[in-house]
Amino acid sequence: MELQDHFRMLARYNRIANERLYQSCAQLDDTEYRRQRAGSFGNIHALLNHILLGDQIWMSRFKGGGHTTPALTTILFDSFAELRSAREKQDAEIESFFDGLEPDFWGRVLNYTNSQKRECRESTPGAVIHFFNHQTHHRGQIHVMLSQTSVPPPSFDLHRIIHP
Questions:
Q1: Which run of H or of E encompasses 58?
Q2: How many Å apart are CA 130 and CA 32, to the nearest integer?
Q3: Strand pairing report for 119-123 and 109-113
Q4: Torsion sign across C-alpha atoms 116, 79, 88, 19
Q5: Distance of alpha carbon 153 from alpha carbon 139, whole angstroms
Q6: Cβ of 83: how many Cβ atoms within 10 Å?
Q7: Alpha-carbon distance 151 to 144, whole Å?
Q8: Full-model pTM
Q9: For residues 133 and 129, what is the distance between their CA atoms, to the nearest angstrom?
Q10: Model confidence over 90-134: pLDDT tens digits?
Q11: First to last CA, the chain
């Protein structure tokens, strides 16, 4: 499998995994959805916002922007419905972006200031690997948070999603 095909597959996986995750989260009442829990960002809502924020930051960098990094605790959307809609749009953009990459994309270097105000320089392949790993890492945390509720967490096994 070529590098670009691998990342196209991960973009598709990301969309489907997020659809499953949001379907499960939609079954929670607002109190349970926002309940403080052990893990990054303290609750499911804040963590879903963080994943979307991270995706927005990295997609901007991949397109030549994103030179500064906003606070990683930023709440982009207070309502679940708005967050879910934005997530669907972002996932469509991610899939489209990785479907249409020019070959020179993989040779680029990204320069940006991270959330600790440190200047960073990163190869595009490494940044893309981080981009997809970041999503998977935090979806896994939400999976654990969901397991503490009455809503069963969804399966995120890549091989079951891509080749059901």
A1: helix 44-62
A2: 30
A3: antiparallel
A4: positive
A5: 10
A6: 20
A7: 11
A8: 0.94
A9: 6
A10: 999 999 999 999 889 999 999 999 999 999 999 999 999 999 999
A11: 19
